[in-house]
Write a structure and sequence with these properties.
alpha/beta, ten-stranded mixed β-sheet, four-stranded antiparallel β-sheet
Length: 510
C-alpha cells in the first residue's frame, strides 16, 4: 500500500513545509507539465548555443523562464533515466533497470510510489502521453496484447495514459490507451516474441526489399519484424489497423496531450509528455522532411520543437499558461547513428549534438547525462534567466511534493531532494553533487568530476561513442575542461578520494 506521511526537505531532512500556494485556494495550484525529449542533446537547441538548427518554440519557452546549464539525467540511457525521474530512486540501486525490451514487465512496481501518486494525492488529475519504455504487465513476455494489460500506469498514479508500448525501434508497434491497444483490430490479433520469428512473417534481415522507409545499420539488431516499411527489434504478427505509422507518432502525442489539457482545464492537472522524435527510427512527418538540412535527425528536432509549440499554444488558448509550470528536459544525451541508415552522420555538418562536451548517449562523459533543462512558470519565475545551479532529474519527485504540500513516506523516493527553490530561480547553488550512471558510476560537484574505473570498452564502434570507460581513476575539472580531455587523477589524489567517499557513502545507503 502506498503512503505519504513524512515531508522531506533538502537532503531528505524532515521539515515543516510552507506551500507555494494556499491550500484553500484550489484555483491557485499550478498545472504541471514535464516534457521529456528522447535522445535530445545539450547542443541540439538554439537556446543552448546551436547555430545550425532552428528551434523557435523551445527557445521561446527558455526565454519565458529559466534555462539551466548544469542539469543532469541520472543515466545515459532511457529506461533507467525515466525510472529515476518518476520514482526518485536511483536505477543503479537495482539490477533490473537496464534498457527494457518491448515485452518487459513493468519496471516500476505497483507498490512503489511515483511522482504521479504525489500529484494525485494533492487532488490533481494525472496523465501520461509518451514513449513509455518502462514495461507493461507483471512479467516479461507474459502480456496478452489483445486485452487490457495489467499492471500499468493506472497502478502508478496515472488517471489517463496513452503510450507507445515500448519505444519506436521495438515491437509491439501499437499505442496503448489506458492499457489497451488503441484502435484495436479484432481481425488481426497481436502476437509478440523476442526469442523466435513467426513462421511466414517477413523480417528486415531476410526481406530487405520490403524496407521501403528505412533500412537498418549493420549489426545493430534492428532487422527483425517489419512495420511501416521499417524493421525493428523483436518479432510481431497482427495489429492491422492498430499499427502506428512512424510519421504520425508526433501528431498522436500532440493530439492526446492537448486533449488531456482541454478535458482537465477546469482543475489542476499533471501531465507527463515523453516525445519520441529524435530516438530511432527517425521518420518525421513530411511537413518537416528536408527542412533542417541535416536529414531525418535534424528534421525530427524540428518536429519536437513543433510539439512544444502546440502544447504551449493550447495552454495559452485556454488561459492556463501563466499558472502552468513546464519543465522541458531530455532522458539522456544524443546519439547520431543508433541503428538506421538515415544519413544522420553524413549530414551532421558543423552541428554538435553534445555541444562542446565529450561523449553522448551510452557515455560516462558529460555528453551522456548533461541535458537541456528549462523551467517556465510565468506567474512565478522571472523570464529570460540562466542558472548555473547543479540540478538532477532525481529531485523532481521531492520538489513536486514540496510544491503541492504533500508528505513523502519513509522509504519512498529515497534519493530525491527538495530543490524547488532552485527550479524557481531562488537558489543559485542547487545540489552538492550529482551522480551519473552509465557503464560505471560517476560523481560531479559542479567543478570536479570523478569516473570510477571499469573494464568495459572505451569506444562503442556501433554508435561511434566515446564511453568514458577506463580501468583507472578519472578526474576532470569541468570548470576548466568541460570536454574532459585532461585526466587529473594522478595530480589531485586527495580530490579523487573525496569524490570516491561520496560514491561509497551513496552505495552503502539502503
Amino acid at each position: 500500500m502506498k503512503h505519504l506521511n513524512l515531508f522531506l526537505g533538502v537532503g531528505g531532512s524532515i521539515i515543516t513545509a510552507t506551500p507555494i500556494f494556499s491550500q484553500s485556494a484550489t484555483n491557485d495550484r499550478p498545472n504541471v507539465i514535464i516534457i521529456l525529449a528522447d535522445d535530445l542533446g545539450y547542443g541540439d537547441l538554439g537556446c543552448y548555443g546551436s547555430t545550425t538548427i532552428n528551434t523557435p518554440n523551445t527557445d521561446a519557452l527558455a526565454n519565458s523562464g529559466l534555462r539551466f546549464t548544469d542539469a543532469h539525467a541520472t543515466a545515459s540511457t532511457s529506461t533507467p533515466s525515466r525510472y529515476s525521474l518518476l520514482t526518485g530512486h536511483y536505477a543503479w540501486r537495482r539490477n533490473d533497470t537496464g534498457i527494457a525490451r518491448g515485452d518487459a514487465g513493468m519496471v516500476i512496481r505497483p507498490q512503489q510510489t511515483t511522482v504521479a501518486d504525489v500529484f494525485k494525492a494533492a487532488g490533481y488529475t494525472t496523465g501520461a502521453v509518451d514513449k513509455w519504455h518502462l514495461g507493461l504487465g507483471d512479467k516479461t513476455s507474459t502480456q496478452d496484447w489483445n486485452n487490457k494489460v495489467t499492471p500499468g500506469p493506472a497502478d502508478l498514479g496515472f488517471d489517463y495514459s496513452c503510450l507507445m508500448a515500448a519505444t519506436g525501434d521495438r515491437v509491439p508497434c501499437v499505442w496503448m490507451e489506458n492499457q489497451q491497444v488503441l484502435n484495436y483490430d479484432p481481425s488481426a490479433p497481436i502476437e509478440v516474441s523476442y526469442t523466435k520469428p513467426f513462421e511466414g512473417k517477413p523480417t528486415g534481415k531476410n526481406n530487405p526489399e520490403l524496407l521501403t522507409n528505412l533500412k537498418p545499420s549493420p549489426n545493430h539488431g534492428h532487422d527483425q519484424a517489419i512495420v511501416n516499411g521499417i524493421s525493428r527489434i523483436g518479432y510481431m504478427k497482427g495489429g492491422g489497423k492498430a499499427l502506428w505509422r512512424d510519421q504520425d507518432i508526433a501528431d498522436t502525442i500532440i493530439s492526446k496531450a492537448t486533449d488531456f489539457i482541454k478535458r482537465n482545464s477546469g482543475s489542476p492537472f499533471f501531465l507527463y509528455v515523453g516525445t519520441n522524435d529524435i530516438h530511432v527510427p527517425r521518420f518525421p512527418h513530411p511537413r518537416f522532411v528536408g527542412k533542417s538540412g541535416m536529414g531525418y535527425r535534424g528534421d525530427a528536432i524540428l518536429q519536437f520543437d513543433h510539439t512544444v509549440g502546440k502544447i504551449v499554444e493550447t495552454l495559452q488558448q485556454l488561459g492556463l499558461r501563466d499558472n502552468t509550470l513546464i519543465i522541458l528536459t531530455s532522458d539522456n544525451g544524443p546519439v547520431v547513428d543508433d541503428g538506421y541508415q538515415d544519413r544522420a552522420v553524413e549530414l551532421l555538418g558543423d552541428h554538435k549534438p553534445s555541444g562542446n562536451m565529450r561523449g553522448g548517449k551510452y557515455s560516462n562523459f558529460e555528453g551522456g547525462t548533461r541535458v537541456p533543462f528549462i523551467v517556465s512558470w510565468p506567474s512565478k519565475i522571472k523570464k529570460g534567466k540562466t542558472s548555473k545551479a547543479l540540478v538532477s532529474q532525481i529531485d523532481f519527485f521531492a520538489s513536486m511534493a514540496y510544491l503541492t504540500h504533500q508528505e513523502i513516506a519513509q522509504g519512498d523516493a529515497p534519493d530525491s531532494q527538495n530543490h524547488l527553490n532552485t527550479l524557481l530561480g531562488k537558489d543559485s547553488k542547487g545540489r552538492d553533487y550529482v551522480i551519473e550512471a552509465s557503464s560505471s558510476l560517476s560523481v560531479s560537484n559542479g567543478t570536479w568530476k570523478y569516473i570510477t574505473p571499469n573494464k568495459y570498452t572505451p569506444f562503442m564502434k556501433l554508435t561511434q561513442t566515446e564511453t568514458g570507460n577506463l580501468p583507472a581513476d578519472q578526474l576532470y575539472n569541468l570548470k576548466k575542461d568541460i570536454g574532459e580531455k585532461q585526466n587529473l587523477a594522478d595530480k589531485y589524489p586527495q580530490k579523487v578520494e573525496e569524490l570516491k567517499a561520496i560514491l561509497s557513502q551513496e552505495r552503502n545507503k539502503k
